[in-house]
Design a protein that fits this description.
The complex is a heterodimer of chains A (627) and B (280). Helix content of chain A is 21%, strand content 30%. By secondary structure, chain A is α+β, with helices and mostly antiparallel strands. In chain A, the strands form eight sheets. In chain A, strands 17-16-18-19-25-24-23-21 form an eight-stranded mixed beta sheet, covered by helices on one side. In chain A, strands 6-5-4-7-8-34 form a six-stranded mixed beta sheet, with helices on both faces. In chain A, strands 27-33-32-29-30 form a five-stranded mixed beta sheet, with no helix packed on it. Chain B has helices spanning 7-12, 60-66, 96-114, 177-185, 199-202, 227-250, 264-273, and strands spanning 16-18, 27-48, 70-86, 119-123, 131-132, 164-169, 190-197, 208-214, 220-225, 254-259, 277-279. In chain B, helix 4 packs parallel to helix 6 (227-250). Classes of the chains: A alpha+beta (627), B alpha/beta (280).
Chain lengths: 627, 280
């Protein structure tokens, strides 16, 4: 017998205390009597003081001593040594998608597809890793503890910490590696923390450690369960629409990770959310053989206009996840601008600058209006005002011409790339410092200021405190940059996704033109996630990718394409099968952590203690009073 | 709560009545000969006629013989007075069996008193007026023993002169038997002391450690009830009973010890053996 907390044996002191209590103040079953005086003579205290009576060995005393003994042993953590010790195994699973690479002996796509349909029987590193974990679970036995960490940029626990080994099976069955290429170093740090001094650490990956951040230390085991395989994958995909011809185009970058050219079947199909679920057969737009040379090659495919989303796929090979990409037709955000500057040098210079920008049209109602500073404000329109502002924004005082130095708020998107080098800023009037926030200043005067209050409207207004007729700003390189920045700022505020096609793990930003009236959700095949119901929604593009829909209630507001497109992960030639390091198994006594369920002595003591206390209570209970 | 009295058993044993003492009694007009003159048919004496005497009592034959007017005196007939003193302390309910035996004993005595047309009153304490008892069943209202002390312990119990007295108690309280019995017997025509205890109270057995709790709230006592303790207790109980018996003899009273659990018929016979009851 061993004791997890030997100090708990101090509780045995309760036994002499109980004996003393029984000796000095006995606790007997209650018996009501009609009169005590006939009994009292037997209780008389002799003149010499209280004599020491013989200890009455009553059942109550025995039960109390028994309960105290059992309780003391429980507190001391008494356990049968072989049954109470357990091993803590910490497993780090490589969660990169290459763990799903299928080792098909024949290498033909039909064989690969057959195995892919039976993921739990396929010859993949994932299956081999699970088998290895099961072997370890069998080795540590049912009393062993296991912690399983899933690697990634943010490693996460999928079992544990220190869970019973039986809990691992369901988590392993649900484990699907789908992360992009990442270092296991973050997962290693977490796993080592969880293993502590007593746990054993096993790393399961399809490759060797990189030798830098992924080095293992003595006592840890790195089991590479991968197999080097040839692979062809899509490493980049773009979809564009010619603004003039409205003709679409699909540009693929394909990489052949092998030593020989490969032939693949390329299929292009319409992609919808329903088809992603494979509830109906897709509409095939193109199917042709492509010869993929060793290394990187490009494929360009013309597309008819007005096809919202397409799925381009190569025939199956070792790694399925890089064989397909879903691409949504990009719909450029066109900014409508309105040049309402009065005729002169400034208006002409603005026309030139706008003419050099893509994705804008001039018209009304506009998203962005260029106005003289004294013009009445236009509600609901971003405004760029030039010239001397009207009071009270402008204070009394003479205008000045400034040649520098200029102080710019570099972090503001309007001024990114702007230097104002060699610019003579003319006609600068003093502004009310409380009326506008200066973005560019010369001396104590604001040259460019942002203010909603200046125009009396809630829409952003940028005030350019400059006389365009005399300044050389419009001839400097900073002028088209300023106008471009302004247009792009406005473009970013237009409703819709910032982009239409993303890689897994990228931040997706979707802006709504109004506050959503219903809960927002992201749906991607069977995957669904709630989104915050705000005008600007941001989320990380989830794995494994596909056609993602942003829903407002049940209405699809936007569709975006999410694809793995991981160049490093597709290279399966680095995969290997080997074991590095050996376990330094530490079998520490973890009686408490093993739990009482595995310690028969615990239950015996608990039952004894409970029975003794209950029996004593019953013995001393008033219900025991004789009738 | 009053005990559940087996009235069938009590009625079956109710062919008994209280023994009337030979000493003259006092009481209302009734069936028993009183100590004074009255209107019964039993001749007692002659005395000279005095104005106002009832002419129907003039002994005309004696007047014919002696020319002296004399009247005949007759013994009076009375209904005897019975004071039934009962102990309503909680000790009478120490166990359910004792409480039931107490109820049946009091009911039996009430039945014996009411069956002889006696002027029966139930005395439960000095501060409480005695209650006339017309039917034996009326005692049920007085059997919920909840007092901290019994009537027999009280020094100034209001008992009627020349009354027949029957006192029922367990007498398990510290007392001087001569004092208690003398108080009950003073100015009475007769006295019967009936002590009711359980078998455990009379003859306890070895039980081991027990916490004895006085049901009347007079303390607790941890005692190991072993052979020695039992022997000492029995000796003290025996002395208590003998003291009561001796005091009763000295006061001309009857003493009976009744054990709870005895059937009413057996209790009645024990009372009859002690001269408390007699067949009707």
């Amino acid at each position: 017998m061993t004791f997890a907390s030997p100090l708990g044996l101090l509780a045995l002191l309760a036994i002499p205390a109980i004996v003393a209590i029984h000796l000095l103040r006995r606790r007997f079953p209650v018996r009501p009597v009609a009169g005590l005086f006939l009994w009292q003579a037997a209780h008389e205290i002799p003149d010499g003081g209280r004599r020491i009576d013989k200890l009455p060995w009553t059942l109550s005393l025995l039960l109390e001593c028994l309960a105290a003994l059992a309780l003391a042993l429980l507190i001391a953590g008494a356990a049968l040594a072989p049954a109470a010790s357990s091993e803590h195994l910490v497993v780090l699973l490589d969660d990169s998608v290459s763990m799903t690479a299928i080792d098909s002996r024949s290498g033909d796509s039909r064989s690969v597809r057959l195995q892919a349909d039976q993921a739990d029987q396929a010859a993949t590193p994932r299956v081999r890793a699970i088998a290895r974990v099961r072997d370890e679970v069998s080795r540590i036995g049912p009393r062993g503890r296991i912690t399983i960490v899933r690697s990634g940029e943010r490693p996460a626990l999928i079992v544990g910490p220190a869970a019973f080994s039986a809990e691992a099976e369901s988590a392993l069955a649900a484990w699907t590696p789908e992360a992009r290429r990442h270092s296991l170093s973050a997962g290693l740090r977490l796993a080592r923390e969880l293993a502590g001094e007593s746990g054993s650490l096993l790393i399961l990956s399809d490759r060797r450690p990189d030798g830098t951040s992924e080095r293992i230390v003595p006592g840890e085991t790195w089991a590479a369960v991968g197999v080097a395989l040839p692979n062809v994958g899509i490493v980049d995909a773009h979809r564009s629409v010619d603004a003039d011809t409205k003709q679409g185009r699909l540009s693929l970058t394909v990489r052949n990770y092998s030593d020989a050219p490969a032939r693949r079947v390329l299929r292009l199909v319409r992609s919808t959310a329903e088809r992603t679920n494979e509830s109906s057969s897709p509409t095939e737009l193109l199917a042709r053989n492509v010869d993929v040379a060793v290394g990187t090659s490009s494929i360009s495919i013309p597309l008819p206009a007005a096809i919202p989303a397409v799925r381009v796929a190569l025939s199956d090979d070792a790694l399925l996840s890089d064989n397909a990409a879903v691409l949504v037709e990009p719909r450029p955000q066109v900014v409508v601008v309105d040049n309402r500057l009065s005729d002169g040098r400034g208006r002409s210079a603005l026309e030139k600058a706008l003419g050099a920008l893509a994705g804008i049209v001039q018209g009304s109602p506009a998203h962005l209006a260029f106005l003289d500073a004294g013009t009445a404000p236009s509600p609901g329109v971003w405004q760029a005002r030039f010239g001397r502002p009207p009071p009270p924004l402008a204070r009394e005082g003479p205008s000045e011409d400034l040649i520098g130095p200029f102080v710019l708020e570099k972090r503001h998107p309007l001024l990114q790339g702007v230097t104002l080098a060699g610019v003579v800023w003319t006609g600068v009037v003093p502004l009310d410092p409380g009326g506008a926030h200066p973005l560019a200043s010369g001396g104590d005067r604001a040259l460019i200021a942002s203010s909603a209050q200046a125009a009396g409207a809630a829409d952003p207004t940028f005030l350019f405190n400059v006389d365009l007729e005399r300044t050389n700003l419009i001839r400097s390189p900073d002028w088209p940059i300023l106008i471009s920045n302004l247009v792009e700022m406005r473009r970013r505020e237009l409703p819709g996704p910032e982009r239409w096609n993303y890689r897994v793990g990228e931040w997706v930003r979707v802006r709504f033109d109004r506050q959503p009236a219903a809960p927002l959700r992201l749906r991607m095949g069977a995957f669904t996630r709630d989104l915050p119901a705000t005008r600007l929604v941001e989320f990380v593009a989830p794995a494994p990718g596909g056609l993602a829909q942003v829903l407002e209630g049940d209405q699809v507001r936007y569709e975006i394409g999410i694809n793995p497109l991981d160049e490093a992960e597709g290279d399966l030639r680095r995969a290997s099968t080997e074991t590095i390091g050996t376990f330094e198994t530490v079998r520490q006594e973890r009686a408490l952590e093993s739990g009482p369920a595995f310690d028969p002595l615990f239950w015996l003591l608990l039952a004894t203690c409970t029975a003794a206390m209950f029996g004593n209570w019953w013995l001393l209970s008033p219900r025991r009073v004789r009738a | 709560m009053p005990p559940a009295i087996d009235w069938a058993a009590v009625e079956a044993a109710a062919s008994w009545r209280l023994v009337v003492p030979r000493t003259p009694l006092s009481g209302r007009v009734g069936e028993r000969l009183g100590a004074g003159t009255g209107s019964s048919l039993e001749f007692q004496d002659h005395r000279p006629y005095a104005p106002g005497d009832d002419l129907r009592h003039v002994d005309w034959r004696a007047y014919a013989r002696s020319d002296v007017l004399s009247v005949r005196l007759y013994r009076e007939e009375i209904a005897p007075r019975v004071d039934l003193v009962i102990d309503r302390s909680r000790s009478m309910t120490a166990t359910a069996a004792k409480h039931q035996a107490y109820g049946e004993l009091v009911a039996l005595l009430a039945s014996a008193a009411t069956s002889m047309s006696a002027d029966t009153r139930l005395v439960t304490g000095a501060a409480v007026p005695a209650v006339p008892l017309h039917r034996a069943a009326d005692v049920e209202r007085f059997l919920d023993c909840d007092e901290s002390s019994g009537a027999v312990e009280e020094p100034r119990l209001r008992l009627r002169r020349q009354s027949m007295r029957v006192a029922v108690s367990d007498f398990l309280f510290p007392h001087d038997p001569d004092l208690v019995v003398g108080r009950l017997a003073r100015d009475g025509a007769s006295l019967a002391i009936v002590q009711l205890t359980t078998r455990d109270e009379a003859e306890p057995e070895i039980e081991g450690g027990r916490r004895l709790v006085d049901v009347e709230g007079r303390g607790e006592l941890d005692v190991t009830i072993d052979a020695r303790t039992v022997a000492e207790y029995r000796a003290r109980f025996s002395r208590l009973r003998q003291g009561l018996s001796r005091a009763a003899r000295r006061a001309g009273a009857a003493f009976v010890h009744v054990t709870a659990g005895m059937p009413p018929r057996q209790v009645a016979r024990a009372l009859a053996d002690a001269g408390v009851l007699e067949p009707r």
